[in-house]
């Protein structure tokens, strides 16, 4: 079974351009080790891929186009904290995967200074035990 790998929007756009320049889809599948249906999906979603690469708001090396919502993020964080507080063995397991992806993606934008200020202001206390 082939291993699953994710390509950045820039990589996908490069493949689309090669096909536009005359490369056959069959040759692209061999060159990049992708299925024909994956290549067809890139071509089908050409507009979204081009917009992602050309957008100032989205890193063109990003691999997925998911927009975070505050509600999903807050619910996921609340669920994680409740699970930790209740000493659940795997506190992240029942959390919405998409929300976790959004939270993880959002962390790249958080500055160290912001985190330090939050810890200073909240003065969290942890219960032993």
From TrEMBL:
Its main location: nucleus. It holds the Pfam family CENP-B_N. It comes from the Eukaryota. GO terms for molecular function: DNA binding. GO terms for cellular component: nucleus. Residues 25-45 bind DNA. Residues 1-49 form the HTH psq-type domain. Keywords: DNA-binding, Nucleus. PROSITE patterns: HTH_PSQ. It is found in: Nucleus. This is HTH psq-type domain-containing protein. It comes from Araneus ventricosus.
